[in-house]
Amino acid sequence: MGEIMEEMASIATTTRLKRATDAARAMLRAALDLALPHLCAACRQPVEGQGLCPTCWSKLSFISRPYCERLGIPFVYDPGPGILSMEAIADPPAYHRARAAVRFDEISRALVHALKYGDRLDLAPMMGHWLSHAGRELLAEADALVPVPLHWRRRWARRFNQSAALAAAVSAASGVPIAAGALKRVKATAQQVGLTRSERAANVQGAFRVPPEGKAAVVGRRLVLVDDVLTSGATVEGCARALLRAGAANVDVLVFARVADPVRTSI
Ligand SMILES: [Zn+2]
Question: Which of 101, 131, 149, 155 has the fewest CB atoms found within 10 Å of its own CB?
Fold first, then answer.
């Protein structure tokens, strides 16, 4: 009995010690944040404030009209309002509209990687602000945001979901709430990198599902899927299909960066 009490007391002390250490570490990190200049997320030069240095900032490629109203991909020339791209007509996606803040290139890739693998959560508000601007029309009509979920095993390895971090920043900037738990990744899919378009589609087939407890947040609602990067669109297509099958009224897509080779018009 005494032995057990001793053991419990020792566990309590360890827990208290761990908490104290965590708190000390957090304070030290805050102090370092104040003392050290921030580094540019792309070139690692010290910067005033946060995010990107002026040189990398000027290289960022923001996406604006004219673009295909459906896919959000920039046109080579302005075909006039409301014209869709050939891609959107030949192979229409399950989602209604997609918008992206910037083109996926060297600088935006560095931002995405810094957020995803580099623990640069401080970048999320800035990226979320750009996302909110790019998606303002979608957000004005939206009931809720749905971050593209990670499989629990990958979230465990990476400790957080970058899409959820971006969705939280968009929610803070736009006031549109997040439908937490509306969508689950039920299949641990292989990394999409290096796969062809059809391989990517097959890879995410059946990967997403609206769980029974998520239904209420989906049925009859206008939803905006949030992700960091759109490459072939297979992931958001899989998510949109699952949400529409579960009864969503509308699904739009908002991503930070997209691969965007300029497209030609349907005419
Ligand atoms: Zn830079």
Answer: 155
